[in-house]
Design brief:
With 481 residues, the chain is an alpha/beta fold. It is 24% helix and 15% strand. The chain has one domain: Alkaline Phosphatase, subunit A, CATH 3.40.720.10.
Length: 481
């Protein structure tokens, strides 16, 4: 039985003053509500609407049918904290000097194997001087709410604990409640009661809070960031009916079959949670007045999901690590069932949200995607940049695979690297030996055909542009030991 959401409503009633200026759309009714749903570790290929042959994701598939599905959507980084920092600020992790995940303490990276390079010291808090999405939207008359995974401060008291000095409220959110919901993070040593009834999912208080926030009566538009914990490890579920369903569906000879069965159930749980929030919008009569964006913070975990046809996975800058689902629905602005092949990235969301709210973002690396909503065939003349000056995995690096493959279902060695995409051309620069790899993604999304020797001029041009952009961003680089 679901936990009642009524107990949350009174604590969510927070008023926000309208900014002093006269932004485009001066009446609250002219400004859309904005619902931003961020998944954790969801691979580009995990949803049925992105071609997965087994996973059932009816709510997200319906969202794609009702709006625009971006085929070339990207995360700002191949790892959690850095990606979230880039998305919330509209700036690249290279510029932020926030390129890895938060830690308990600051310091240097240490592995179980000697490496030729030393990575930059860890950044453990998103600096308060960085201007975030809610800080912009507060000034434009929005009530801003955050529920779910933060991961932008030093772990406080426990893993992922919100900091009292650098948590969501200190970064601009007017409403924020810390809650793990039903994710296995809260299970401890005692598993919940198994669920055998088809169609029944565990209660989730974090989603209850999102539903209450959406349905609250207010005279101002809202921005809600529903930051999911799913589908991050530990991958476990009490829904035995889902396990049975996918045991019957996934072929017996599939690599890592047991993990993939449980993961498939986990993905469907995520879809269910998203569906509850979208249903809340409909029940409140807000669908037509709400811009909805769904995406993921990085690619999928290689031991649980097939990132193919993309190469690589979470933690590296091959497509499998950075290309993610990216779905937008805004009735009256996005054509139902449309697709867009223009490369877009998470750090575009701040300028997009501020634009549709009637403001203008400054000193950001992203661009507003609003023109693509009306015309998904438009083209932006720009390059996208990723910067990961670290090694991974930190534990087990010595035993990880040397080569990064496609659907190899194993951890591989990630060395310090940066990448740039301009048009369909993508170059990856590796700092240990300064070699590059060049791919033309049109027709080679698996990055199997390295063109650096057959197109040396293009490789040099992209290398020069990447290094120039990183220099302008004052990017931190790994150094020789």
């Amino acid at each position: 039985m679901r936990v009642s959401i009524l107990i949350f409503v009174t604590c969510l009633c927070v008023s926000v003053g309208v900014g002093a200026g006269a932004p485009r759309g001066s009446h609250a009714a002219d400004k859309p509500n904005i619902l931003f749903i961020l998944a954790d570790d969801l691979a580009w290929s995990d949803l049925r609407c992105y071609g997965h042959p087994w996973h059932d994701t009816p709510h997200l598939d319906a969202l794609a049918r009702q709006g625009v599905r971006f085929t070339d959507g990207y995360a700002p980084a191949p790892i959690c904290s850095a990606s979230r920092a880039g998305t919330l600020t509209g700036r690249t992790p290279a510029r932020l000097h926030f390129e890895f995940v938060t830690k308990d303490t600051a310091g240097d990276q240490h592995l179980d194997q000697d490496t030729p390079l030393r990575a930059p010291p860890y950044t453990i808090d998103l600096p308060l001087e960085e201007k975030t999405i809610p800080e912009y939207l507060n000034a434009l008359g929005y009530e801003t709410g955050f529920f779910g995974k933060w991961h932008l401060n030093k772990h406080y008291q426990r893993y992922l604990g919100w900091s009292p000095t650098h948590g969501p409220k200190q970064q601009g959110f007017t409403v924020a409640v810390e809650d793990f919901g039903s994710h296995p993070y809260v299970w401890g040593k005692r598993d919940p009661e198994p669920i055998d009834t088809p169609g029944v999912f565990p209660a989730d208080t974090m989603i209850d809070r999102c539903v209450a926030f959406v349905q609250q009566q207010r005279g101002t538009p809202f921005f809600l960031m529903a930051s999911q914990f799913y589908v991050h490890t530990p991958v476990r579920t009490p829904c035995r009916w889902l396990i049975k369903k996918y045991e019957a569906r996934i072929p017996a000879d599939s690599p890592n079959r047991d993990q993939r069965v449980t993961y498939a159930a986990f993905v469907e749980q995520l879809d269910h949670h998203v569906g509850r929030i979208l249903d809340a919008l409909d029940e409140a009569g807000l669908r037509d007045r709400t811009l909805v964006v769904f995406t993921s913070d990085n690619g999928g975990h290689p031991e649980y999901t097939a990132n193919g046809p993309l190469r690589g996975s979470k933690w590296n800058t091959y497509e499998g690590g950075i290309r993610v689902p990216f779905i937008v629905r805004w009735p009256g602005h996005t054509a139902a069932g449309s697709t867009c092949a223009e490369p877009v990235v998470g750090y575009d969301l701040l300028p997009t949200f501020v634009d549709v709210a009637g403001g203008a973002a400054t000193d950001v690396d992203g661009v507003s995607l609003a023109p693509l909503f009306d015309d998904p065939t438009r083209h932006f003349d720009r390059a996208l940049v990723w910067h990961f000056p670290y090694y991974h995995p930190e534990c087990g690096y010595r035993d990880a695979l040397k080569d990064v493959g496609v659907d190899d279902f194993a951890l591989s060695k990630t060395t310090p690297q940066s990448a740039i995409r301009r048009g369909d051309d993508k170059l990856i620069y590796f700092y240990e030996d300064h070699h590059v790899e060049l791919y033309h993604l049109s027709g080679d999304t698996a990055e199997q055909h390295d063109l650096r020797e057959t197109q040396p001029k293009l490789a040099q041009e992209l290398t020069d542009e990447l290094q120039s952009r990183l220099k302008l961003m004052d990017a931190r680089l790994p150094v020789r030991r």
